[in-house]
Write a structure and sequence with these properties.
- The structure holds two protein chains of two kinds.
- Helices cover 29% and strands 26% of the residues of chain A.
- By secondary structure, chain A is α/β, with parallel strands linked by helices.
- Helix content of chain B is 31%, strand content 27%.
- Chain B has a five-stranded antiparallel beta sheet. A five-stranded antiparallel beta sheet of chain B has the order 2-3-5-6-10, covered by helices on one side. A two-stranded antiparallel ribbon of chain B has the order 4-9.
- The N and C termini of chain B lie close together (9 Å).
- Classes of the chains: A alpha/beta, B alpha+beta.
């Protein structure tokens, strides 16, 4: 049965984020933040959660390999900076050691006696918002295909890579659909690579979340993104259902015109393979 | 008074065993805990829980608060690097199965939170199991005790119900036995029982650590036993 491999240090899985950093990502969304700012905030929080899930008193366990492919202008590059900007894919332990910076923040927590207290906490930042130029989506997905194929060849027994693609616009370097098909054809012994697509918007238009068919989509661009997206495997469909989304057989990992809450949920659902690692 | 046999082996020989156990022969109390690997320091948390239970079986939310306070003293949170601080804040998680014999071992009181199970046997028969009754229940995410107070909110609800514990009687059985097992062995036991096997016979034959290790290795190799920290506390009357 697919998507049942136990995730462990011997058999890690891979998350590959493909992030649109084209000029239109500077449009403002809720709260006055730009789309680029919002996506980078959510991605930083997602990385924080992934690292935390792997952290124990004696160190960070490499359950995950993670990559960020950032694209905008004529450029496709690693979204990581500093010492981990070389290869696209990085071990989670290396990511934990190499944020761009660690900020001091305050959060409100349960004090254990029925009250709430402010607690100083350290928050790492790996990705700053960037937005400029066109949308070389084909080039970005070609890079994602190369990276996913190489990783899958090297990890035949692992839960397959999950590619989370975030964009706000149409490709400016050609039709990316065949490349998305190519990504989904890549597999490990545990199943095919999962490709999920998220369209972010500054408002307007009907929100379409985890659809089961093209029929509800009213333009060719959204239909294409639907076709580019994998069907949610059972355990992820259940998780999405638990979060209140309407889920049916054949639900695709695709959100069109998603609002900020959808963006947060998209990342959370997409990075939620069976975490029974090393139980 | 008879003493329980206690055996535990780690998932991998060179890794720390995150199962914890403690036993007070004088009080006729023992406890078993399975620390969840996906958490900061579940081995220490499991040890604190079982040690405290053997010292004081009056489990309550205040009892848990005191245990959390003891755990918090192990680390200086503010000096931890960000990833350890984040994992520390998220919490360490562990099950707790506590057993106390009363009335000259006629009555058994069980406390259970999580997926560590107790099985009451009479000869080769399974009389009762707690808190799980079916092997399939091990596929769910168990509710565990946490060092993060916000994760223990379920206790208020559970205290009002019968979910936390049960009482069993030995004196109505011909050949009573009580087995306490962390999840891998509990799943193995209930699966074999559901298939019509008599797993208690297999466990009754285990009298030494050496034979327990041999049993665990063989069952792991055959795919019948999940590769995980594996513990057994067996009380044969």
């Amino acid at each position: 049965m697919a998507y049942t491999a136990e995730i462990s240090r011997d058999n890690p899985t891979c998350f590959l984020f493909v992030i649109d950093q084209s000029g239109s990502m500077d449009e403002k969304v809720e709260g006055g933040r730009s789309k680029a700012q919002f996506v980078s905030d959510v991605l930083n929080k997602t990385l924080y959660t992934l690292v935390t899930n792997c952290s124990k008193a004696d160190g960070v366990r490499n359950y995950f390999d993670v990559g960020i492919i950032a694209y905008g202008g004529s450029d496709v590059r690693s979204g990581f900076g500093g010492a981990i900007s070389g290869n696209i894919i990085q071990r989670i332990s290396d990511i934990s050691e190499n944020p761009l910076r660690v900020e001091d923040r305050t959060r409100r927590v349960d004090d254990g006696a029925g009250g709430i207290i402010d607690q100083a906490t350290k928050f790492p930042v790996w990705l700053d918002p960037t937005s400029s130029g066109g949308t070389p989506m084909r080039a970005a997905l070609l890079k994602a295909m190369e990276v996913a194929a190489q990783w899958s060849d090297q990890h035949r027994h692992s839960y397959p890579p999950t590619v989370l693609h975030v964009t706000d616009g149409q490709s400016t370097d050609g039709n990316p659909e065949e490349l998305a098909d190519g990504i989904r054809q890549i597999s490990t012994d545990d199943g095919q690579v999962l490709l999920f697509n998220l369209h972010v918007t500054a408002g307007g238009g009907q929100e379409i979340v985890f659809p089961t068919s093209e029929s509800a989509l009213n333009d060719e661009y959204s239909r294409m993104l639907f076709r580019m997206s994998s069907t949610l495997p059972g355990h992820l469909a259940k998780f999405a259902g638990d979060k209140g989304y309407s889920i049916s057989d054949g639900t695709r990992g695709f959100i069109f015109n998603g609002d900020p809450k959808c963006i947060v949920d998209f990342f959370e659902i997409g990075t939620r393979p069976r975490l029974v690692a090393d139980r | 008074m008879k003493r329980p046999l206690i055996f535990t082996v780690p998932k991998v020989s060179d890794q720390r065993n995150e199962d914890g156990y403690s036993c007070s022969h004088r009080k006729q109390v023992w406890a078993l805990s399975d620390g969840a690997s996906i958490s900061f320091d579940s081995a220490s948390w499991a040890q604190i829980l079982v040690r405290r239970f053997c010292r004081d079986t009056r489990f309550s939310r205040d009892w848990v608060t005191a245990a959390v306070a003891e755990f918090s003293k192990l680390y200086n949170r503010n000096d931890l690097p960000w990833m350890k601080q984040a994992a520390f804040d998220k919490g360490s998680f562990a099950s707790l199965l506590g057993v106390q014999l009363h009335d000259d071992a006629r009555l058994v009181q069980i406390l259970a939170i999580g997926d560590t199970v107790a099985v009451l046997c009479d000869g080769d028969d399974v009389v009762a199991t707690f808190p799980y009754m079916k092997a399939s229940e091990f596929d769910q995410s168990p509710q565990l005790l946490s060092t993060n107070p916000s994760e223990n909110g379920f206790l208020g609800e559970w205290e009002k119900s019968d979910k936390l514990g049960c009482d069993w009687r030995f004196d109505r059985l011909k050949s009573p036995a009580l087995l306490c097992m962390t999840d891998a062995l509990g799943h193995w036991f209930l699966s074999r029982h559901e298939e019509g096997g008599i797993p208690i016979k297999t466990l009754r034959a285990i009298k030494s650590f050496k034979t327990f290790v041999k049993f665990v290795k063989a069952e792991r190799a055959s795919g019948q036993l999940r590769t995980d920290d594996t513990s057994l506390v067996a009380y044969w009357s």
